[in-house]
Amino acid sequence: MGFGWWKLFGAALVGILFFHGFCGAERAPDFSFMHNATTAPDISYYDYIIVGGGTAGCPLAATLSQNYSVLLLERGGTPYGNPNITNLSAFGRALSDLSPTSPSQRFISEDGVINARARVLGGGSCLNAGFYSRAATDYAREAGWDTRLVNESYQWVERLVAFRPPMQAWQSAVRDGLVQVGVVPNNGFTYDHIYGTKVGGTIFDLEGHRHTAADLLQYANPTGLTVLLHATVHKILFRTKGKSRPLAHGVVFRDASGTKHRAYLKSGPRNEIIVSSGALGSPQLLMLSGVGPAEHLRAHNITVVVDQPLVGQGMSDNPMNAIFVPSPIPVEVSLIQVVGITHFGSYIEAASGENFAGSASTRDFGMFSPKIGQLSTVPPKQRTPEALAKAVEYMNSLDAPAFRGGFILEKVMGPISTGHLELRTRNPNDNPSVTFNYFKDPLDLERCIQGIETIEKIIESKPFSKFRYDYLSLAALLNITANSPVNLLPKHANASRSLDQFCKDTVMSIWHYHGGCQVGRVVDNQHKVLGVDALRVIDGSTFIYSPGTNPQATVMMLGRYMGKRILDERLASDGY
Question: Does the annotation count 512 as an active-site position?
């Protein structure tokens, strides 16, 4: 093989797919309403309390603040002014940061797949590969959403955070290869979800600065919004005395020093608490607050408010599998820009760039560094100083071409396979236990196999020919991936010969996990939690299937959409 490609695969892949080199613009917006939670009063009152300042919570808070007082509680810090997030030169440091204040929090599912959740204002939009693409029109229709308001809400988001990416040689070769192998037509640049091959949007501007959901707070009414950072909500408070159903009326949260605060809803029949803590955080908080499977809650000594056995059910994570293609010529640094939307249910995407590896001559290995850890060449339990030193020594011995190339990946749509989430402890800072059951449904596996077969055809296509070594066969390329430590699953010798086994052995997350508080099961179609009053969940935990090729556009849209629905309904009822 010459370059020891498989040694690099894991760390390189996370660098490209979970890129967060530019989180927010270089200069922070003047958010007069943003404060550290240590400055919060012991008790405060608002019309709306939103738990989670992520991809949905930020646009939701900005919208509701136009007419009402809103408290937005975010457990993480600001994306602005942090050089480990903002500067490309510091790229990788945030991922390798395992401290309690890191913007990403690693978790490993019970399936053995390494994953991460956001812990920063702006949520996953600060941590992802930046691809911006809308959901299919059928998705919105099946969700029962108002199509006009959906389009208006997407446009509201796009005015601040969506851009057309610059297309260079490697991404162009992937696009042309997709078209040549039959993923047609070529739809050019569009935000829309259309069968065929397209160039999608990005949340990176032309100067390479990331724009996140936090930027949408620029729309907020500054006199109507309070954002508290490093504010971890421990439970939602309910009134039950004299009520036909439990009534959410406040939250308990702790600041970074551990001091407890309480925030309550002002008196008023339409004031609400809204949970927007993501697919792990939202079902976790409901359970910690007494809304969930009664037997499970009692096992953790949690007082049951509502026995709701479907909280934490329906957890899904779209399986992702990739092939690393070493390039004989330099390639541009590119994140996800092109997507092939197939009829068989797989999305083909790609990312590239030796800059993710830093420089072999300067020994600054950037995203290839063994210290990154997300999908590092050193498994977490073995990440000792001695092991790291040995891995770095190995990196020093590599030739410069080992840091050159890119990935073509496929993501299974849906997916159909589901799992569940359970509490491990009563501490909201601890990750819950989550099982996704990748490929439990045979259709998911079939879609992966067809996706990998399509990638193989792209690699062998004429448009892509200059970006691959002639002597590296498809079997050799599959072996690079199959032999790399991309997850904690056992390996099989036949993985490069059996695409069925290859999919199972090399499954990774593309961070599109969802479910746990699904519409029709835990919340109604207005996102109101069933069985209680004055409580909603608005985020990706409510999804049955992941929207579009990449969900962030739709999660941001949903925050705006539901904020507008709530405002319009409330103003109409008040006679405005």
Answer: yes
